[in-house]
Amino acid sequence: MPLPTPSATPFDPSGRPPALGRPAQPSTGRGAVLAPQTTPAGQHGTAHLPSAHTALVCVALPGLAISTERAQLTGDGLEGFYRSGRRMLSRCRLRVAGREPLDVQARMLAADQAHFVATLSLSRDTTPDPDVLVERTRYADGRERITLRSAAHRPLRLPVEVALGTDLADLRAVATGRPGPDLPASVHDCGMRWSSATVHSVVTADPPPSDALASAGLLRWEIDLPPGGTRSVELRVGPARAGPLRAVAHGATSPLAPARATGDDPRVPALLRTSLADLQALLLRDPVRASDTYLAGGAPWRCGMAPAEALAAARMTLPLGTRLAAGTLRTLARTQEVGAGPRSGSIPGPLRQAGAQLPPSCTGQEATLLFPVVLAEARRWGLSERETEELLPAAERCLGWLRTAVGDGTYLADPRPGADPGAHSTGPWRCETQAHAHRAALLGADLLDAYGRGGGAELREWAKGMRTAFQEDFWIEDRGGGRPAAARLPGDRLLPYLGTGSVHLLDTGLLGAGEQAPGLLAGAQTEQLARLLGGPAMDSGWGLRSLGAKEAGYNPFGHRSGAVRVHETALAVAGLAAAGYEKEAGSLLRGVLSAAEAFGHRLPEMYAGEQRVEGGAPVPHPTACRPAATAAAAGVLLLTTLAGVRPDAPASTVTLRPVRGAPLGEIGLTGLRVAGAPFSVRVSRLGLALVEEAADGLQLGA
């Protein structure tokens, strides 16, 4: 599949790309891409997603259950049970004794479970006390358990009715307000059935209802409830012939290690626990090889493969083991362009809006450059030699594409709109693209040398030349000490705004012996960038703004022009800490932890970059995915950065370079994985690290 062009590629102006430039097929188990297909800004047909922030979104992909704070599913908005992007049930309205219970509480129990509590007063006297407590637990896999608990002093005989209905609409249509009419129901076994031309949905009940009325989609029970007694009804929603739902079935081994965190700051264990739960909920299986799992982009809008984000998330979760990275790499290797031509070796991916001052960027290009980086670093964390050698040819093809795309030039340009994406381009040359390419060249060369493959010296030579030129060509001198340009444009013009694209200049990658790869900036330039990222224009108090508050076009809700993006904030924290700028790293870290607490530790992919004030709270972005793969993985990166674990599994060594200032006090991380074995580390309040568990034979490096 070719890298996409703006004229042919599904495009979301809010930055949420459909997977692989095409919708996934629901029948494959890959998971549907749920974002509406939209067109670039300025063209007709742009769809606007409704806010899902206040919704209770239960996720166990490819299953979703979306509810408001009311327990009743009315079919309004996004409400309903979904499977592979199709709404299996849109209405589920409960009546007990002829009335709807009064909602009193709604909360998430886990990433895939929401719990609702309501009350019902049946007494004829004037007492306000409820006689029946109604609890509903809703699961992403299509189950709902309704439990009635009696608080009355007399036996109750309660007629219970559940009115069901669905439109079997695609989430794209639901999100854009075009779901279609409810379909007629038919009585089926112990429940109801709805059918369209391609999809069939069935609801079954346990115990079976005493009566069913198809014309109204109504199931009825007569329930005897003794004083203090409890009775339950369970509904199961799904397609008529449901395949395996979860990427990791019950009892199966997860690709993510069950890590735990302890520490002085109570937000630390909560963030890691919630991040892990969200990552598990977003796992999907590759239909070609079911043992390979990867992370969907996020819920509810991107429940399919987003190549660049899947790789970025897998990279951040390497401290939890290498299985997820290996599965993601194998899945994407099967999509890689092969054969002759300028596209050869590239990984396809859709366009992503980059703000008002630059054309859309190509996430396929980013994924192609990330592929050898993730493979090289996964090997350092303990990916087996067999798996590394299996994936090495695909990494070589990615590096070959890089050499072809650069040609005799110094920099890697983004594909021009409308041009052949594999052809040489005249710009723009983005700051972050050069950082991705430089890191891929160095880590790729390290990987090629380790296996006796040719091409490593050539890649290093190009990276060295690009590094020297970059420090001159991309640096803008000013009275404030200078800054890196966001991009270099045709005609040697520089785009001077300061945004989070510069964060990637700090993300240098892990080489052997626990060493960081050299960055593109000189020492004084890195120091200046650290000062800018830690300044009030970029640090909102809740995390790093995607565009400085003093820049033209700043918008606190702009997904690339001011909003806080959790992934890039985590990269900034890790990069600043590795470069020794712990004050700036600590400030950003504490800001994100405070934001996470405000969001119940389930971090959205982004939120408004408004300045933090005392007593305030971060403002949600209306269309952010929550949970999101990169945001959940960022929680892992933020906490493991504090310990500074830098493994070199092939050399049987691990180096610890903790953040000396201990910005969160003492922290302990257990259940990580290095060299295929459990690894635990503790960092004291003085910033001293101690290994408490490690693989046999693993030595502590200098």
In short:
The protein is an alpha+beta fold and 702 residues long.
Tell me about this structure.
The strands form ten sheets. Strands 7-8-9-10-17-14-13-12 form an eight-stranded antiparallel sheet, with no helix packed on it. A five-stranded antiparallel sheet has the order 3-6-11-16-15, with no helix packed on it. It contains twelve helices and 35 strands. The protein has two domains: 63-239, Distorted Sandwich (Beta-galactosidase, Chain A, domain 5); 260-700, Glycosyltransferase, CATH 1.50.10.10. The protein is elongated and about 85 Å long. α3 (307-316) runs parallel beside α5. By secondary structure, the protein is of the alpha+beta class.
Could you tell me the radius of gyration in angstroms?
A: 26 Å
Which ranges are low-confidence, i.e. pLDDT below 50, for 5 or more consecutive residues? 1-46
Q: What is the CA-CA span between the terminal residues?
A: 46 Å
CATH classification class of the largest domain: Mainly Alpha
Global outline: elongated
Mean pLDDT: 89
Helix content: 25-40%
Q: Count of helices?
A: 12
Give a quick account of the main beta sheet: strands, pairing sense, barrel closure. 8 strands, antiparallel
- Strands of the largest sheet, in order across it? 7-8-9-10-17-14-13-12
Strand tally: 35
The name CATH uses for the topology of the largest domain is Glycosyltransferase
